[in-house]
Amino acid sequence: MKPNQATSPEPTGKLGPRRPVPIPTDALWISAKQVRARYGGRSHMWLVRKIRNDPNFPRPTYFGRLQFFRPAKLDEYDRDCIDKQTSKQVA
Fold it and tell me: According to the model, what pLDDT value does residue 56 have?
């Protein structure tokens, strides 16, 4: 064995990003990561700015340092955005 060669075994399992966990239809809470995946794989900074700059975006509930959102509130926010968009197109 060469002196600079690592002695640890080959890594097992797949490395890299993991697939998003599907959100159950009856979920009461979803994580910030699931919210970002819901809106097209957005970044963490997008979510931070959305919470800070959009007063209508649902506020997270914190369990320790983790952010969780209510899917019903996000659905309501989406409907409001769609309604505003369609009212602008009609006018």
Answer: 96
pTM equals 0.74
Contact 85, 53 (CB under 8 A): no
Which structure tokens are listed for 10? Answer: 């080959």
Share of the chain above pLDDT 90, in %: 63
Rounded to 5 degrees, what are φ and ψ at 30?
A: -130, 150
Residue 62 in tokens: 């914190």
Report the alpha-carbon distance of residue 65 to residue 42 in Å, rounded. Answer: 20
Phi, psi of 70 (to 5 degrees): -90, 125
10 Å Cβ neighbour count for 35?
22
**In whole angstroms, how far apart are CA 49 and each of 4, 27, 76?**
45, 25, 19
The residue to which tokens 């809470």 are assigned: 29
The DSSP secondary-structure symbol of 60 reads P
Report pLDDT digits (tens) over 56-85: 999 999 999 999 999 999 999 999 999 998
